[in-house]
Each structure stands twice: as structure tokens, then as C-alpha cells.
Amino acid sequence: MTADDSFLAISDANRRHLLEELRRGPKTVSELAAGLPVSRPAVSQHLKVLLDAGLVSARAEGTRRVYAVSAAGFRKLNIWLDQFWDA
């Protein structure tokens, strides 16, 4: 993951909304889609972008996938941003 991947991933308002929801706790696609005016397949596509950027993780729970914020992904982004505070 590069900082560019993370910034591209969070550039979309729907993905930022998903991150805000996941910040409150792990959720399934159905639970996340209930809070957005987009379809479940669209939510899945947004989650894939966030997964690819390393900002969320997913685990299988039966036939469902449960998504959560990835602290490691945000740590990398935070480290990159931190270098500008001392500049």
C-alpha cells in the first residue's frame, strides 16, 4: 500500500461514510448498505477499494464477511502524514 492508494480510497464520500460506520464497530455489507443510498453490490465495490488500500480488513463468519477498520493500514497512513508536522 502506498499513501496514494489510501488517499484515493478515502477520496470518495461513500467510502468515508463506510469508514465512519466501521469505526463504530465491525459490520457486514448488508449492515453497511442500510446506511447508504447505494446498492449492496456498490457497497461491496467500495469495500474492495478500501481492502486493497489496506484500510479495512475482512473475516469470514459463516457465509458472511465482516468488515472492520484496519489499524495497521491507518498507522501507515498516519506515519506518512506525520512527517509533515515537523516540516
UniProtKB/TrEMBL annotation:
CDD domains: HTH_ARSR
One Pfam family from the record: HTH_5
Assigned keywords, A-Z: DNA-binding, Transcription, Transcription regulation
Presence of the UniProt keyword Transcription in the record: yes
Organism: Aminobacter aganoensis
A single GO molecular function term of this UniProt record: DNA-binding transcription factor activity
Protein name as annotated: DNA-binding transcriptional ArsR family regulator
Family annotation (PROSITE patterns): HTH_ARSR_2 (PS50987)
Taxonomic lineage: Bacteria, Pseudomonadati, Pseudomonadota, Alphaproteobacteria, Hyphomicrobiales
Record-annotated HTH arsR-type domain positions: 1-87
Signal sequence bounds: none
